C-alpha cells in the first residue's frame, strides 16, 4: 500500500522539483555508465623505486634496478592455480629531449616473466627467457617477480655528455598472451588489467660519456 501511494506523491511534486529530480537521476546513471572499465581502469601495480646505474664491468651503458608493489587479485591467483600462464612485462624507454621537436626515442626494451603452476610438482615457476626458477609458494614467486636487478637496458655509446635525456619504466600484465576467452573477459573485468603508470627514471650524469 505504501508503494502504491508513492507514484501519486511523485506526480504531486511541482514541475520544477520533479525536473530537478529526473536530472539528478540521469546524471548519476551517466556517471556510472561512463566510469572507466577494462584497459582504462588498469590498476594495482605501483613502481616503488626505479634507478639506473653503471655496470660494474665498466663496459658503459646502464642497468635498471626496480621494485614493484602489487598483490595478485583472487581471480588471477585462481587462474594460475588452474594452469593458466600469466605474462608480466616490464617496459623501459629512453628519450633524448629536444626543445625544437618531439623527443627522440633511443631505447625501447621489454622484459617478460612467465608465471605458471604445475599440479604434478605442486610448484610455481617463474621464467625469464630460457631461465626458469621453481618456488614452493606463490608468495615466493611474486616476491621475485616484484624485483628486477641489473637489467641491461642501455648499451654503451648511447648516452653522451651535453645531451638531455628522460627515461621511464612500468610493469603490466600482458593480456594479449592470455587464452582468447580470458582476453575477452579482460575487456570488462579490471582485475585482469593489472598495470602500473609510467614511472620517471632519473638518468645520472655519470652514465654519460
Secondary structure blueprint with pairings:
Blueprint: H1 2-11, H2 15-34, E1 43-44, E2 46-53, E3 62-69, H3 74-81, E4 86-96, E5 104-118, E6 123-128, E7 131-135, H4 138-145, E8 147-154, E9 165-173, H5 180-186, E10 194-195, E11 199-201
Parallel strand pairs: 1-10
Antiparallel strand pairs: 2-3, 3-8, 4-5, 4-9, 5-6, 6-7, 9-11
C-alpha-based Rg, rounded: 25 Å
**What proportion of the residues form beta strands (DSSP E)?**
35-45%
Number of strands: 11
On the 0-100 scale, what is the average pLDDT? 82
- What is the count of structural domains? 2
By secondary-structure content and strand pairing, the structural class works out as alpha+beta
Any low-confidence stretches, pLDDT <50, length ≥5?
1-13, 15-42
Overall geometry comes to elongated
> Gap between N and C termini, in Å?
84 Å
Biggest sheet statistics? 6 strands, antiparallel
| Helix run count | 5
Oligomer: single chain
Amino acid at each position: 500500500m505504501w508503494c502504491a501511494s508513492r507514484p501519486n506523491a511523485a506526480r504531486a511534486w511541482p514541475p520544477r522539483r520533479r525536473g530537478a529530480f529526473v536530472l539528478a537521476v540521469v546524471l548519476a546513471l551517466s556517471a556510472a555508465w561512463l566510469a572507466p572499465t577494462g584497459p582504462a581502469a588498469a590498476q594495482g601495480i605501483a613502481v616503488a623505486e626505479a634507478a639506473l646505474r653503471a655496470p660494474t664491468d665498466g663496459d658503459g651503458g646502464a642497468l635498471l634496478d626496480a621494485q614493484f608493489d602489487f598483490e595478485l587479485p583472487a581471480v588471477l591467483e585462481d587462474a594460475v592455480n588452474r594452469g593458466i600462464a600469466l605474462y608480466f612485462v616490464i617496459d623501459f624507454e629512453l628519450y633524448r629531449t629536444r626543445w625544437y621537436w618531439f623527443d627522440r626515442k633511443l631505447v625501447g626494451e621489454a622484459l617478460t616473466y612467465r608465471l605458471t603452476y604445475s599440479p604434478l610438482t605442486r610448484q610455481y615457476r617463474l621464467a625469464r627467457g630460457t631461465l626458469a626458477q621453481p618456488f614452493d609458494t606463490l608468495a615466493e614467486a611474486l616476491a621475485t617477480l616484484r624485483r628486477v636487478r641489473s637489467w641491461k637496458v642501455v648499451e654503451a655509446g648511447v648516452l653522451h655528455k651535453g645531451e638531455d635525456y628522460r627515461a621511464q619504466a612500468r610493469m603490466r600484465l600482458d593480456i594479449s598472451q592470455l587464452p582468447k576467452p580470458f582476453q575477452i573477459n579482460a575487456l570488462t573485468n579490471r582485475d585482469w588489467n593489472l598495470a602500473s603508470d609510467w614511472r620517471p627514471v632519473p638518468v645520472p650524469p655519470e652514465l654519460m660519456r
